[in-house]
Amino acid sequence: MAAMIRHFRSSSSNSIAQISRSLSTTTASETVKSQNYPGNPIPTSIEPKGKIVQWVFLGCPGVGKGTYASRLSTLLCVPHIATGDLVRDELKSSGPLSKQLAEIVNQGKLVSDEIILNLLSKRLETGEAKGEAGFILDGFPRTVRQAEILTEVTDIDLVVNLKLPERVLVEKCLGRRICSECGKNFNVASIDIAGENGAPRISMAPLNPPSQCISKLITRADDTEDIVKERLKIYWDKSQPVEDFYRSQGKLLAFDLPGGIPESWPKLLEVLNLDEQEYKLSAAA
After folding, report:
1. Is-catalytic flag, 130?
2. Given 51, 163, 220, 267, which residue is catalytic?
3. Which residues contact 199 (CB under 8 A, 6 or more apart)?
4. DSSP annotation string for 123-191
5. Distance of CA 250 to CAs 117, 167, 176, Å?
6. pTM of the entire structure?
7. What is the Cα–Cα distance from 89 to 68, expressed in whole angstroms?
8. Out of 142, 172, 247, 251, which one is annotated catalytic?
9. Is 167 annotated as catalytic?
10. What would the pLDDT profile of 11-53 be if each residue is shown by its tens digit?
């Protein structure tokens, strides 16, 4: 994977062969069977058991990609690589990119391919040194160009596209809080929105912090209503075509979140053909 990033930077003619060799230790992906719906081929048979998954999580800012990708990462014992976390870590580091990133993030703009690939390269190289295999990518690819690069060098098994109505997304983002001491994420928003046009009602209870974190909660600088709405607009304009890219390959699984974690997690496991208890017992053996 790190070789993939070097290929993007160098654009050398023989990089693809080098990248393919670097991925030779990863289990080959199985073909995802799909059923054709009108204009929307959707995977209907997913078999993650007994293989190293190579998955991508898509979705608007604030939809919960990190939450569900992280849970699946733990369950399947593969690394969860979130480019948003890489950006935030760089912002905290006071490194050479931190000032440039701060200006971009505070304006609600997308971070450039060059910067994202630079940060991702460092993370992948660190993972390779630790012997990591497989991955769940969260926040990459964000553009069709990035998706094309990824397709050139490895087989993505499945692309999970998490979906929520825009009104819910805005409320969720405005309710996000971080403990400045322990770094854990919480959400103070209490969401209860009636369904429209036949859609079901969506209710999400707040994810409140423990007492020791209450006085230390902070809001991300980019979680203002104007910036959140700008991020959503950019997503529709720039990133949504990535959905079409993977849909055309029969790898896109669109999943409408029915509510918060208690309602959504078991349903997501069901559509992914995963048994949480089975995996926990296997890991403990």
Report:
1. no
2. 220
3. 165
4. HHHHHHHTT---EEEES---SHHHHHHHHHH----EEEEEE--HHHHHHHHHTEEEETTT--EEE---E
5. 26, 29, 34
6. 0.73
7. 20
8. 142
9. no
10. 433 333 333 334 333 333 333 333 333 344 446 446 665 568 8
